[in-house]
Automatic annotation (TrEMBL):
One Pfam family, short name: TPR_11
TPR repeat placement: 72-105, 106-139, 140-173, 174-207, 208-241, 242-275, 353-386, 387-420
Domain of life: Bacteria
InterPro entries on file: Glyco_transf_61_cat (IPR049625), O-mannosyl-transferase_TMTC (IPR052346), Sel1-like (IPR006597), TPR-like_helical_dom_sf (IPR011990), TPR_rpt (IPR019734)
PROSITE patterns referenced in this protein's UniProt entry, alphabetically: TPR, TPR_REGION
Span of domain Glycosyltransferase 61 catalytic: 660-835
SUPFAM superfamilies, sorted: HCP-like (SSF81901), TPR-like (SSF48452)
PANTHER family with a match to the protein in the record: PROTEIN O-MANNOSYL-TRANSFERASE TMTC4 (PTHR44227:SF3), PTHR44227
Gene Ontology terms, MF aspect: mannosyltransferase activity
Alphabetical UniProt keywords: Repeat, TPR repeat
Organism lineage: Bacteria, Bacillati, Cyanobacteriota, Cyanophyceae, Pleurocapsales
Species this chain originates from: Waterburya agarophytonicola KI4
Name assigned to this protein: Tetratricopeptide repeat protein
A biological process from GO: protein O-linked glycosylation via mannose
Amino acid sequence: MSRGASSIKSVKSHLVKGEWEQVIKICQQEISLDPSAVDFYLYLAKAYVGQGNINAAISSYQKTLGTTIEQSEVYAELGLLWSKQKKLDRAVWHYQQALALRPDWAELQYNLGVVLHQSNDWNAAIIAYNQAIEIKPDYGAAYFNLGVLYDQKGELEIAIASYEQVIVVQPNFVRAYSNLGSTYARQKEYDLAIAIFQKGIHLDPTWATLHNNLGQVYWLNNEPGLAISSFENAIVLEPKMALAHHNLGKLWQQQGNYPQAIECYRRVIALEPANILAYSHCSDAEQKLGNLPAVLDLWRKIIKIQPDFVTVYCQRLLASEPDDLLAIAKKSCARFLQALLDEKDKIAYHYLGQTYEEMGDVLFEFRGLTQAEIYYQKALQLHPEKADLYLKLGNCLAKQQRWDGAIAIYQTGLNLQPKYPQICFQLGKILEQTQDAEQAIDCYESVLNQKMQNPQQWENLPRLFAREHNLSLLPEQVYHHTQDWVRDCQLEDFDYVQIVWSDVSPPINTIRGIRQPEALNILPPGKTAYSDCGGVNCNSCMTKLMEHFKPLQIGKNAYQCSLEQPAPIQSRLPFVVTIPQGRSWIAPQKNSWIICDALAVITPDNYLLGDLSRYYPWFLPECPYQERNEHSIFELESIPPVEKIDGKVALLSGLAGHVYYHWMFDILPRIELIQRSQIELKDIDCFVVNSLSKPYQKETLELLNIPSYKILESDRHCHIQAEELIVPSFPGYMDWIPPGTMEFLRQTFIPLVNLTEINIGKKIYISRAKSKNRQIINESEVDRLLTERGFETVFLEEMSVLEQVAIFVNAEVIVAPHGSGLTNLVFCSPHTQVVELFSPNYQRTDYWTISQHLQLQHYYLVGENFECLPLRNLMYQNSLTEDILVNIASLELILERILRDGNARS
């Protein structure tokens, strides 16, 4: 036996025993004697792998490339090692080299699929898994990973079929039962899920995960007793299973057993010190028990784990000069968060209470009475000695007509501060209303016997009951369709013209049957008969709309919209009606966050016209409650006197008409509707719009040849009656842009731009860094990545409308956070690539309709979530204002896909 053969025999013996040092020693000796002895590099690499020295192993394998050693196996081993190093691109390349040599290697196709899956290149991963299955039809692991991938993509039917195939080819693959049951649960097929989990438990009764999953489905199926038993079984089998402890804690919390819930959450935190949700849920339970020191401690730890949201929020707000109530509340919140981080708990308590009170004030003014009540209660938990809070909470309950609760709160405030004049007055008003005259008189006398101080407190005191004379101004019945009123009205000189607005998605032009007016419901403020509908923010309706676009998940939080077919949304033909002595009330803007949230068009015979009147939050297409018998005009404390206007008055104001999106899509197109109704604009004496406070409002009206002297701002003239009120209907549903509107804007503004004067490139990033909300938290990282890719950053608020039009006409790739800036997509050329950035709690289809109609390619990325709901709710008054934390890897994935698509087209 030669020396080399003897050494190889010895090396193999040591490898079997795991004696890595001996293997390395022998191989290095042989290689030093004969550098061409490539077999020893192979064994040396395996020994380094055994030791965990991956870099040395890679180096050794690389020495065997181009030698007589089986090259496909060398590439395969290198692919595996690079994947362990998380160098996924290198791993993919080496696996592909191996497969080029041995394309029928099923396990290698599977490994390639795993790495592509980890790289978020999901379509390529699907191809690799399917090729592995084609080579090896009983490959259970490949079917399983396909199921996982389709699960992540939200394609649940294909995921279910994949998991079922695993069970067919490999009946004892227990993880398939776990995933299959979980997918059935996501489809709300709870009985099927329970049956699948029970089959899995029969196969392996010791696997805690199955018991935990079964518990979750029992919980969803309203069987809390069985759920608790299942979670406890999981914990017995696996005492360190944090998920089971967490689920048990959430269930105890739902049952109102806060001490038990806290105990479970504390165990989760001990097992997983970075589990933000556990801290968050634990803080909720501690707050229910009034343990505020524990709450602050938990919040502080959350911020240390995930500091980005809070750090950027504080930096921005602490440097700001607040100009309204909301800005003041947000700055107080930032001061609280900063004190919390600095461990100055006394200061933190002060600002937390102040934040709760100010947010209560904001929501009370916004008519969010239920939420305002919660904030005032939390403020009282911190400052039970503040009589002002009892006044505010009492007012909040009284506005909801919860008289007994309001009386009790007012009286508690008077126990703290007897004869508090505003509380006495409000209590007297309620007692007077509830027929307790004697006690009401006592309250009023208490007020009269005191010296008047701080008149502003009386000016700001909300009126609990509407003035009687206001009620006579309000309509009592509603015609849901103006066409019905036209049919029935006895007036002369009215006019009604329907307008053909688009050839796409034929409208519903007729109303079936004879429709009579219906009585209007007058409910307490904040109450609605449609409580299961969130209006334009309705999750159920928005989810249905999103499904029309079939978003394809292409990576982590990264999606591409499928835009081949328009969504089957039908709307009625728009129209223009002329109403002699018609009346309108339009809610004026109060500040930067309470803009126009309601408008009412009222006929001279005192009917509300439902299809011309709107109020926030209104509704989305396909909402089941499109004919509403209520209106927020009835929540007003008082209505200004009617202002009579001579001549022909065109009503253009709309909800949120102060916002660029709504100005362009809801206001301006109605001017075109008027022209198509054969009414000459020059014959109109006055045009009513929300405001002329923004440069783009003045610019666009000038471009449409409407002189400023003919403009009447409804912010200043909110309740008018016109000699002839000309009212164009809205051209489509709110937050759903009809094709006719897009074509009008394109034909109106694109011919006015000079493309030769554009000094911005074809790849643009629209920054919201100068906006008040929905900013990008990691803006510098995003900007750096995009700049490297040739993007230019633009601030649209600094540009004229025509400059914006020119930029978008010229653009080939646009990246932008969701916001009004994307209104300008309506001016894009076909095949423009769009990347829309969302927060995880606010995703919308507003701009997808534009991309579909104009044949753009629309991608979107969902940002990272700030998991602490209590802090998130404190920082942001609703999901619309949440800042966005962009996952850079996901953004890179989309940009690479755009580059590939662009190369393929060219």
